[in-house]
Amino acid sequence: MTLDTPIGELYGVGPKYEQYFNKNGIFTVNDLLYYFPRAYQNRKDVYKIDTPVFDNMPHSYVLTVASEPKVAMIRRGMNILKFRAFDDSGSITVTYFNQNYLKDVFRTGATFRFWGRIVKEKRTLSLNSPSYEPCVREEELPPFVSIYPLFQGVTQKYISKLVSQIRPCISTLIKEYIPSDIRYKYHLCALPFALENIHFPESDEALHAAIKRLTFDELFIFALSLSQMKTVSSSKLAPRMNDGDASPLVDMLPYELTDAQKKVISDICGDMCSTNAVSDADFSMFTRPMNRIIVGDVGSGKTVCAAVAAYIACKNGYQCALMVPTEILAFQHYDSLFPMFNSLGLKCELLTGSTPKKEKNQILSRLKSGDTDFVIGTHALIQTGVEFKNLGLVITDEQHRFGVMQRAKLAEKSASAHVLVMSATPIPRTLSLMIYGDLDISLIDTMPPGRKKVNTYSVDSSYRSRLNAFIRKQVENKNQVYIVCPSVEEKKENDLDTPDYNPFIIDIKDDTPPLKAAVDYAKELKENIFPDLTVEFLHGKMKCKEKDEIMMHFANGEIDILVSTTVIEVGVNVPNATLMIVENAERFGLSQLHQLRGRVGRGKDQSFCVLVSDARSPKSMERLQIMHTTYDGYTIAEKDLQMRGPGDFFSSSDSIRQSGELGFNIAKSCNDNILLHNAFECAREILKDDRSLSKPEHELLRKKVSELCNLNAQTIS
Ligand code: ADP
Ligand code: MG
């Protein structure tokens, strides 16, 4: 067996199962090894039958079978198998459904370690369908059982059997790629140990060491890849714009630019019109490509900066493409930018997934011939078949919806273009230097004048009827309301798969009010509370087209109340919406709440944000309190980082959604700021002496880095 051995060659994996794995990105032994558990059951802490259990979670019980299992038919097709079992604190009934063969497993007098929830039914205690392991000597049983993320066709048992097959080979197959001095310096365990213990933890300490090491690796390799990308992009050339005068466009604006916007625009012009010598050849036509991100809070006015950049590219005879994550955002940008460009004599077009085929072909040919100066669109813009005559500038909006490395790839597609990205996600300074390490950053830190702040309150669900009255009042004033819920549909209860021990999740257990679900809640409101109003729902599992339609109706004022998951957070502008209600506010990151709040307060009317939460832990309350007093996205982001750790930024939907493309698997749950810092620090140190990772001791590391870069290249196409 090698790391490249196809998964199909493992014992027990037929062609059908191989397909299931392949579909989920697992092709080789190595892929399986890096398919980490999502949680662990702590089975080493054995409870007694009479131990009081308050958490309604499954636990371990070591019990001896007291009576021969009896099978009874309760109805057609439903058998029940029962027996008594005991420990030194009492006895209990153990039951299984439709598993008659277990009769031969549970021999009287034999001892097992069970894992399940004890329930009380009519004064008898019973354990229903617990997992079990034969137990001769308790200490020989594994202390933890890993819970893997499942996908179609596989069960927990199946995956762990397969991982067990490769376990004995881990120490011979896995080669350490982090030099030992670094491992000592940052207290990192060896890679084979980490991989073994992430799947089969031998103790709490070993598990945490494994998590730390594997998290470090992801962050570290990501940090190295970023700088690699920067090296590549700075070696390229982009057209130099000779005419940097944006005043014809700026003069048309109905408002004065803020100082922050002026600064950003001068950064942009500085990049694109730079006369910096590129090399010794005569490159009067070229310069180093701009590689800049505009970071500014929602509503800070990034669009007009992008428009200026586009205008400069176009007036110098180059084409510009502006890519946005959703169709509706594309429409909105087109509506606001088309008139300006049109009156400046520049041809501006819109290309999205729903552009009719015939029209699309015409647009494509105009892009190719160079007739079109400026195209605004969705992902449709980077599909094959889209060719430009002389693309000089590529802009992406709401950067966090695209992959970090997608951007690089997009720039690559257009052999020599400037790149400008915009992001409304306030990312703490420390993180943004890391995440956007390959970009120059322009910050818009002031808002256009005259913005009203969104009054923010938090309430618990005892305010429900007052809240509903408030909703009604907004609608009577001809305004619109957003209600955001944390989940799409009601979760099924009693999922035995729920682990009791999850080192990745820290503070949820003591504080989990039931979740409001968008679809169900919309139905309830529609049928019982606001039958006379238009209530619709929106969530990420809907088809793009449906989502865009709903959003369009909302933007046109045809929907009064929009119940939604966080999909609405992307920069759509509905000035008429004045109330944002966030249900289960305890579930959202602070930055995410800030982002959501930015959906309202865009028009002339006073707007409100109500955070509904029944969570009562001091930590939850403190978090919500921050939202009442803080309106600056950066301050909020910094506090979020302090309180929740970087994992929140990597994994939660509010920020850096590309965590998958970052190569983050385990690191997306990282809550350790120091580890993050160390990983980037360490990357810097290594690159200082060995920019291209060409020293022999860095060979394996270089391979890892290029794997990540290639992986990202593939996800683009
Ligand atoms: P975002 O940064 O979230 O993309 P937008 O660019 O959509 O923000 O701008 C939000 C709103 O503010 C728009 O309606 C825009 O016309 C307006 N705006 C932008 N700059 C200014 C300014 N300097 N003064 C007044 N209004 C402005
Ligand atoms: Mg915007």
CATH superfamily of the largest domain: P-loop containing nucleotide triphosphate hydrolases
The class by helix and strand makeup works out as alpha/beta
Total strands? 26
**Distinct ligands:** adenosine-5'-diphosphate, magnesium ion
β-strand amount? 15-25%
CATH topology of the largest domain: Rossmann fold
Tell me roughly what share of residues is in helical segments: 25-40%
Radius of gyration: 29 Å
Count of separate DSSP helical elements: 23
CATH class of the largest domain, named: Alpha Beta
Which residue ranges are poorly predicted, with pLDDT under 50 across at least 5 consecutive positions? Answer: 491-511, 652-661, 713-717
Question: What would you call the shape?
Answer: globular
Jot down its keywords:
7-stranded parallel sheet; 9-stranded mixed sheet; Rossmann fold; disordered C terminus; OB fold (Dihydrolipoamide Acetyltransferase, E2P); 23 helices; 4 domains; alpha/beta; binds magnesium ion; binds adenosine-5'-diphosphate; 717 residues
Description:
The chain has 717 residues and is an alpha/beta fold. Strands 2, 3, 4, 5, 6, 7, 8, 9 and 10 form a 9-stranded mixed sheet that branches. The chain has a 7-stranded parallel sheet with strand order 16-17-15-18-19-14-20, sandwiched between helices. Strands 21-26-25-22-24-23 form a 6-stranded parallel sheet, with helices on both faces. Helix 7 (204-234) packs across helix 22 (673-689) and helix 13 packs across helix 23 (699-716). The two termini are 32 Å apart. The relative contact order is 0.10. Residues 491-511, 652-661 and 713-717 have low confidence and may be disordered. The structure holds adenosine-5'-diphosphate and magnesium ion (MG). Adenosine-5'-diphosphate binds next to helix 10.
